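DATA SHEET
Item: assembly model
Revision: 1
Owner: S.N.
Input lines:
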Amino acid sequence: MKVTRRQFLIGCSAAIGAMAGGRLNGLAFAAQNETVTRDILVVLFLRGGCDGLSLLAPAGDPNYVAARNDDLRLGDGGFDPGLPLANPLAGLDFRLHPQAAPLRELYDSQQLAIVHACGLTNGTRSHFDAMDFMERGTPGDKTTPNGWLTRHLLLTNPTGLFPAVAAANSQPISMMGYPDGVAMYEPTSFSLQGHWKYGPMQQNLLRKFYTGNTPLHQAGLRTLNAMDTVDLHITRDSDGYPLPYQPENGVEYPSDYYLSGLDSSLKTVAQLIKMDVGLQVATIDYGGWDTHEEQAYIFPDQVNGLSRGIAAFYNDLSRYHGRLTMVVMSEFGRRLRENESRGTDHGHGNVMFVLGGNVNGGQMYGNWPGLATEQLDNGVDLAVTTDYRTVLSEIVVRRLANPQLSEVFPAFAGYQPLNLVRGSDLPIQ
Amino acid sequence: MTTFTRRQFLGRTVLLTATSVLAACKPKPSPVVTPTPASAPTTATQTQITTPLPPIEVIALNRMAFGPRPGDLDYVRQIGFEAYVEEQLNPNDDDDPLATERLSQATLHIAYDGNSDYEGVDEDRPLFTLDQPLNKLWPLTNWEIPADYAERVRPGDETIVATWIRAVYSKWQLRELLVDFWHNHFNVNMGLSERLAAIWPIYDREVIRQHCLGNFRAFLEAVAQSQPMLYYLDNASSKASPANENYARELFELHTLGADNYYNDLYNRWRDVPGAEEGQPIGYIDQDVYEAARAFTGWTVADGSYSEAGELPNTGEFYYHEAWHDPYQKRVLGVEFDANQPPLADGRKVLDLVATHPATAHHLCTKLCRRLVADDPPQSLVDQAVATWMAAQAEPDQIKQTVRTILLSPEFAATWGQKVKRPLELLASFLRATNVDFRPSMDIFWIAGNMGQWLFNWVPPTGHPDRAGYWLSTNVTLNRWNTLLYLLADWHSMVEYDWWGQHPAGVTTSRQIVDFWLERLLGRPVADDVYQALLDFLRQERGPDVPPGGENDQDLNEKLANLVVLIAMMPDFQWR
């Protein structure tokens, strides 16, 4: 069946004119009538509980050495040692995973800051509860009706066309309940693939049918609007067909199978940032971290994919560094001691990364609690000495220019910036 | 021989134009269970009903079946709703002519290159693994026996195709719906390794189908001892000590008591869990997970694994390996276990405790009501189901009794539009209503995956979300519409349509044709303005009471086909 691109476009353009109205004028990065400039925030979530103690740890710590075989811990010598870090915590020999060389480069160039022993103060070891608590921004309370990013967005009321995008099949809980939230794997094919003649007619009728106020109707309307926005902004060839995304600076995104789609998600976010449709917040997921078994066969590839993916994304977006902040987090770390399946079970404290042009990088932050039994949480897991909300709220205030912390993170008292990022501390509300 | 993971393999052989599908395939090199984002549940806002409650036969065929096929609505009207429920609760494989015929006629393409060990193949082959016993399938996992990867994973592929055929053609629709429910409740990601795909018909047939209307305690043990679950949640490699906690944690959190009854703040203070001192703690703590993990050490698969006590046998059967078991005393849910119990006793005692726990009844009944009635089922309904569940704990048809209670409840008949169809339901209901000739290939797996439903390949142990939020993202919504268009365009050569041939005598005008297809797909009227829009779409410049026209026959065919798909893309067809 032949779809004539030109004909299809006409239908869409008519539709967007009808729906967008005055909004089309305000689609620049920050709305023209806004005086506040906010960073674009990208939240990369490592789903499954990344083993922070294999990603970054004090290599020679005797408790660390005693708890794990050498293939599940970072070495300070021998074959494939960990990469030493400048400005470590507590003067210890903190080393990054050997597959994380691109991350160390970003660290050494002052773009990347690392906080260790972070996480939920709630003690859950359930993936799904931990993600739920973290993403709602209310540890211990799963009844909060929306996510922390949702509340930030509602408070700042962005007027662009795509304020919030999940580069995934569906929105994560952190964006739950945001009425303008868009989930999109890939912009280039985000269109109705209909018959050349009847497709545009169907698209117009769908706009008529999806006008109710149920979640189903709203989803349809949101989808139609998103299709129109992409249609209007995507780069096309001379025949009107959308062009595949071209990264800048000669960047090639890694595409090994263990990227598990991370490359595609990163590209989608980069493409949408450059489409200038008012993107404020994007979320990306990278799974595969639940390493209960044979961790040594899995973890190095995961770290490799993560590190190369982030580096490619950051280099691709070099024009945007001044207004880009990326945070990397996971629902919890893993048990200090390995199990008999040569894996690690669910733990507690973990590492967080903050990347961007206004990050005070090249340093580790936080308080290292130690790995002796009496220093561990419940005697088995890395303790949490920095609430994950401490890291996020500093970004919200200083980079997203939103001081309304009591709304974004209710019941989180005491704003205590670690000085991870530059920016001003507005009067906290 | 180069070995691919299952998904790499499929990704290489299935040609699919939508790039996002391939972006969504996540090959997994090794056995890892990856929680992906818990999808955002729907917020408190519930679907507002704007259309009147449809007749009971429409509700029944949309919520205890994958939608009506032509004649089904009349059949339920004729025998009555209660008789239909009773019939559906008693499936009989000897009386399922359409599905039996379709399964026996079905073929699935298989193609691979030959080498020095075996000949190449490129053929449409009948389904042949679905009824095979374990000892016929297990050799597919043996790398010393030369076989192409496509042969090793063939049983899993056949089960996927058979599941679609049964959803569309089986008379026993309620069973198919419940099989889907239990595959999600006891979720296993078959894509983890070729071993799981090779024996998947056993899990589908002897665990899920065998117990889907049976007794929950028996079901739980069948799952706990099934090879797919033992591999998926790592219990197969769990040994003393420390044990692997993966299965034990999900047993409490997902399979039985549910996360709502996880008291993580109490951690090691088990006496503080309400009811613990009386031997009836209302929930579990981390130490229960640790202790249960110890209880299941040694529950593994006879797969030839190395052990210091000698290599395990290699039959593929469930195997209890004493040398890996942690024999010492334990305490689970406040109940003491003596040291040195007989083989399997520790694990079975854990299963007894969790299967009969009141929190399990509540968790499972809520999920069943959510599947069969509404995303947020009325508490009154859940309470009725719990009462039946608890009273029937020792009976072989505990689940059947509970499902009957739900289906015959006033709430079932009084609820509509509180569920959005999942992709399997959306496509199966479309294929049933349109009465097309459907011959699925593996493309159906990728098509549904593109809409968010990875049949038998959902990665985290939660199973696919059963609340609307996940299915109402912009990405999924667009793919739901596009998939109907793809099927129409027959991109995948899985369907054959004869639209005009289905019109009975007397259905010739645009109005009659719109009425006919609305009755077929929805079984109920739509709003006036919607009706008018559909009528205008078909008639265009012609009057409503004369036959529709087109530039030529092909154009007329395409217009009618696009009308039918348009009805399926409407909100009215997307919920149940």
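QC remark: The CA atoms of residues 58 and 94 of chain A lie 4 Å apart.
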